[in-house]
Amino acid sequence: MEQVYTPWCITCETTAKHVQKLAKHFKSLDNLLFARIDASASEHPRLQVSDYPTLLLYTAIDKANPINLSTKSSLKDVATTINKHLKAKDNAAKREL
């Protein structure tokens, strides 16, 4: 999961604290990484962000099309969404066997 933020964004600070809690919650998983990118200092042509903060979940199934997670959702809702996509990946792997 990637948090795209800017230093001047007030709500980015609150979101960063939520992302830290999520990272702590999911720390035992080897297949989930948490990252932050300062959009004011870094640019990437494929990173299409129109609002800050933005939370993007890159799944193993489709890394080119990240899932935009709502920063207005509760921590529990974001965790549920992450779990749903992790389970979908596990189910896809099982189907491939």
Automatic annotation (TrEMBL):
The keyword Isomerase applies. GO terms for cellular component: endoplasmic reticulum. InterPro entries: Thioredoxin-like_sf (IPR036249), Thioredoxin_domain (IPR013766). This is Protein disulfide isomerase-like 1-6. Gene3D superfamilies: Glutaredoxin. It comes from the Eukaryota. GO terms for biological process: protein folding; response to endoplasmic reticulum stress. Belongs to the protein disulfide isomerase family. The keyword Iron-sulfur does not apply. Keywords: Isomerase. GO terms for molecular function: protein disulfide isomerase activity. It comes from Pyrus ussuriensis x Pyrus communis. Pfam families: Thioredoxin. Residues 4-69 form the Thioredoxin domain.
